[in-house]
Amino acid sequence: MLDKYSIARRIAKEIKDGFYVNLGIGIPTLVANYIPESIDVTLQSENGLLGIGPFPLEKDLDPDLINAGKQTISMTKGAVLFDSAESFAMIRGEHINLTILGAMEVSENGDIANWKIPGKMVKGMGGAMDLVSSAKEIIVAMQHCNKAGKSKLLKECTLPITGVRCVKKIVTDLAVLEVLPEGGFCLLERAPGVSVDQIINSTEGKITVSSNNVPEMGLD
Amino acid sequence: MANKVVKDADKAVEGIKSGMTIMLGGFGLCGIPENSIQALLKLGAKDLTCISNNAGVDDFGLGLLLKTRQIKKMISSYVGENAEFERQLLAGDLEVDLIPQGTLAERIRAGGAGIPAFFTPAGYGTEVAEGKEIREYNGKNYLLESWLKADFSIVKAWKGDANGNLIYKGTARNFNPMMAAAGKITIAEVEELVPVGELDPNFIHTPGVYVQRIFQGDRYEKRIEQRTFREN
Fold first, then answer.
1. Contact state of B27 with A48 under an 8 Å Cβ cutoff
2. Is A138 helix (H, G, I), strand (E, B) or coil?
3. Taking Cα atoms as reference points, which of B62, B58, B61, B83 lies closest to residue B73?
4. Interchain contact, B224 vs A164, CB within 8 Å
5. How far apart are CA B89 and CA A70, in angstroms?
6. Which of A115, A133, A157 should one mutate to test binding to chain B, selecting the residue with the greatest count of B CBs within 10 A?
7. CB of A11 closer than 8 Å to CB of A100
8. Which homologous superfamily is B9-116+147-216 in?
9. What local confidence, expressed as pLDDT, does residue B1 receive?
10. CA-CA distance, A170 to B158, in Å (whole number)?
11. Chain B residues 105-144 with a CB less than 8 Å from chain A
12. What's the pTM value of the predicted model, to 2 decimals?
């Protein structure tokens, strides 16, 4: 089973040279640490920045420079700032190559639920609905099962959804899966030491395997 | 040209009355009109509908106006950092309208740009789409969203001049430029009020045509919500 850092490391391998990428809060934020220096990737922050750099030194903290998680950040050389309408224009206009975000549930047809638990305090969807409705490519980073041990890869989402038929790929602590165009999860890779049976048993939605010999994911 | 410069925040918020709709710029605590919020506390106008991406924190930003119960309704995309907000909401004392962030930004932009409605994919198939007109374009479904306008918009900029021209700094720009255009009366508070002609016209973000009142804020605390830094 992978820890959250290894999930982030595996997802980083999906990012290609020249990509503009939006990273959500949680595991997706960690992905930035594993992007190889050999490729040129621009990170978008939906509050109005292309070119998120590393966290600043304490002496350089700037309250006027934060990411969508409200953390203080720095800018890369060549970064650009803009307003929120422009930011979501580039998101809805499909100019961002890849969106990586967390989820509470994903259904076998690619629906995602990650913003609201009925009966609990509703904090709001932020930019998640805009991102999932428009991203060219969406990768979900999450645990395969919730804390109660129940699968988060379902036939249908039980929680209020954030978007329909939008998730293409999922990286969990157990596996890499894709959502097939006709519906259903397809197992592409398994985490080191995890069996195909274990993954199938942990998946409530329809699942097929890509081959008789599902490879272990490479994390280097 | 009519003089847009007012003495201070108290003068700037004159005319804001109970029951009005007000837009306030900012993302989290970044780029919020701190001085005008203090003036609104003093002014005491109640039953306000506030359009702002977030609702501040317990003791700063819009959280201050929540504490004094001056806000009747919040229109926002994310309100998760405020315990007082949660208490009032669960008690039924506060209404909230949650809107996808891009839709919120575009509805405000539309309000200032004279576009009454537009179609967006955000929220299709979710509870956000309930009761809204759906239309298909090129095989994809979109929902109809309408403009937002305000009696007063209050924005915060880095530099401004007496004509109301504004320049923002960093990610403190966020919702401020669209809100500046969507208010019947727009108040701009700036860190530095400079002489007309000093701002380079090539680099002005908000043209002064949208701004009716401008003043230099007395003091900016610029509180940080998530203080994150690296060691070396």
1. yes
2. strand
3. B62
4. no
5. 23
6. A133
7. yes
8. Glutaconate Coenzyme A-transferase (3.40.1080.10)
9. 57
10. 42
11. 105-106, 108-109, 120-128
12. 0.97
Q: Where are the domains of chain B?
A: 9-116+147-216
A32 in Cβ contact with A55 (< 8 Å): no
Q: Which amino acid is at A111?
A: D
pLDDT of residue B220: 97
The 10s digit of each residue's pLDDT in A76-129 is 999 999 999 999 999 999 999 999 999 999 999 999 999 999 888 788 999 999
The answer to whether domain A4-209 has CATH 3.40.1080.10 is yes
Query: Which of B85, B87, B101, B148 to probe by mutation at the A interface, max A CB count within 10 Å?
Result: B101
* Strand ranges (E), chain A: 20-23, 42-45, 49-52, 75-81, 98-101, 105-107, 112-113, 138-141, 153-154, 169-171, 175-179, 185-190, 207-209
Residue B125's closest CA among A140, A165, A95?
A165
Run means of pLDDT, 10 residues per run, chain B, 232 residues: 90 98 98 98 98 95 96 95 86 94 98 98 98 97 98 98 98 98 98 98 98 97 95 85
For A127, the token pair is: 């930019």
Total residues found in chain A within this entry: 220
So where are chain A's domains? Answer: 4-209
